[in-house]
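Dear colleagues,

As part of the handover before I leave the project, I'm documenting each prediction I ran so the next person doesn't have to rerun anything. This entry is a single chain, and its sequence is reproduced below.
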Amino acid sequence: MKRFPVICLLLLWTFGLSAQTQQTISTAPARETTEEYKPKRHTVSGYVRNNTGELLINATVFDLTTKQGTTTNEYGFFALTLPDGLHRLRISYLGYEEHVEHVDLQADRRLNISLSEMPSLSTVVVTGDLNSPMLNTQTGKRSLSQKDIRGEFALLSSPDVVKSLQRISGVAEGTELVSGLYVHGGNNDENLFLLDGTPLYQINHTMGLFSAFNVDMVKNVDFYKSGFPARYGGRLSSVIDVRTNDGDMQKHHGSYRIGLLDGSIHFEGPIIKGRTSYNIGLRRSWLDLFTTPIFAIINRSNNEDKFSLGYHFYDLNAKLTHIVNSRSRLSLSLYQGRDALKSKDEYNQTYGNGNYGSNDLTRNDFHWGNLNAALNWSYLMAPQLQANFTAVFTKNSTHYNTLYESNDRSETRNDFTRTEHGYHSAIYDAGYRMAFDYRPTPGHHIRFGNDYTWHLFKPQTYANTSQYGANEKRDTARLAGSNRHIAHEISLYAEDEMVLSQRWTLNAGANIGLFHIGSRLFCNVDPRAAVKYQLSEKVSLKGSFTTMSQFVHKISNSYIDLPTDYWVPTTANLRPMRSQQWAIGAYIMPDKHWLFSVEGYYKQSAHLLQYANWMGIEPPAERWQDMVMDGRGRFYGMELDARYHAARLELSAAYTLSWNKRKFDHYYPGWFNDKFDNRHKLNLNLHYRLSKGTFAYAAWTYRSGNRATTPTQYAPLPDFGNGSEQGYIYERPNNIALPAYHRLDLGVNIHHKTKHGHERIWNWSVYNAYCHLNTLWIDMKYDEQRGYVRAKAKGYIPIIPSFSYTIKF
């Protein structure tokens, strides 16, 4: 805690120094150091919106007079400090018409810029996009707008944020069809998902078939995989910052969508025109609407064995936005997502004139999901300084209940057995975020702030009840237990993106994380730095160094999200996970249509946790610290990307060459390959506009197969009983690579305008178009005649056609 005054002094010094510099430039009287007049400087600041009032993230604001520019932040805010006089500001954003604003700067000016959406895009290239990988400073950053996400392949006709990210170089998807995200060798729980500033712990539905993000609500996604700005912390591998739409401030409209397995409705519009808006989106699967009547029909024809199964998920997003005045803005963002799975198996048998019989009942009930809330106040404190204050709340919970009941009847005896097992795990977060965006000059973009989170971990609150007996005599046994951990997490950060010269740009900062649990206080200082060298207008070079810390962990026995997973904190006996990552890259843009990039990275991690999966599918939370292993990771590789944009055609290619290795001394004495150590990965994507309203797309994926552990010998083993036994001998973990994975996805979107001005969209898509059965697991058998172990690949996911119909009104 002694570091707090030092941290505060550093932040005040950074802020004060920049403010003092700006004040000197802006207010000092002119003096003749030379014969030339030194002009005064003023700040033009404001917000960039579209014509519905929606704030635009990463829009480019460029002064054609001085050749200086900036981009809008996650709240649509920009600020440029320029010499007094006439200026021409060009404001541009992908998919919108460019706007040029003529400004005569004689004092500080505040502008609210509105851009109009292009009815049909003649080209998808924005001239001088400062958020482009060519011009921004960070390595490994990708930004996806709503148009980018909607243009991706739609699995089962539902566009998906996570599956769009899986196609980026350096990212492994894990198991087929699952929304896994393994970035630069990291685990799935090492990704920081933020939804309007609140952490999202459960990102999947249907155990990974769909992600938790409703694309009708998503406005922008910033994805960081190599260099991390200092304002983010708490995870090791990547940051996915998702921002939702505010809602139309001018008119009411919405949409309906009907897909193969799910559907959605979306409404937005003004409550007070030009001041207050709402935005609501609801998505629900309807597999249970089909299975319920089907099982009912089947059970009517079967008097003895009756079985039923039902599953559904839903997402509810809501956002209210209110413009207090030109400097102040309030928003309330809510999200709730839930999965529910129920099954019932009942067996009834009667014989001997009804005097004898048996009844068996097995019932399972699972439900799990998230509840997120964020109340944000954005306030323009000064022309160069914007402040954002956010109160956040997050709840992630899992409930599981199973019941088994048996009743055997005879003329004189009735044997009864009943076993019920209940299970509940949850994590609660409450806290605040304070973020300040300060732009004293075009050459300095300073961010600093403070986050606080109160964590309540409740892994595995359980209750077991057993009843057994004969006739009226029954014994009952009950067993209950609960776990509860309270922790406090604080982070302080400061970063400055500065233009050092015409060619050099630097982003430097640090994130200080403190984690308090029980009597233990952990403090980690994570420095961050990214540098860019603009070799020419067409070539830029970058490098970055990042350290990250993680204080929370997910205990899981599977590579898919199961209701039995739970989150736990770092404790007095376990140290926080740490990682260091270096990255370098070159970016080439020979003309406005092509962009090439090559990046190399090296990441090493310490104090990684691995659950000993032989302890069962429900890791006991009371002793979870004794069932994990502390280890290290070493991950490195190279990524090649190419993109082509034209009026009707868009092509992209992403290739990854990587090595992912781990070392757990209690598991295996040496380094071994990770399960998702896919040596080669290649993604090819094509989007083509066939006509004014018809768009086709194709995506081909290839990667080296996942790895598996197989025995290398089958030999006699010592037995302390009678004689000896045969057993498998394993050389090392993940010692073989499965067959290569590849598939082709195809799709087409047809847009049609009705006479009432409504838009209809038909989508047809085909997953795994040439029906290649990729390996999901292997079946191992010992061949006694030939004396070796045989492994046979098993694949079951065939071609999957799907459709959807959307109407916008």
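The chain has a mean pLDDT of 86. Residues 261 and 682 are 29 Å apart (CA to CA).

All the best with the project,
I.
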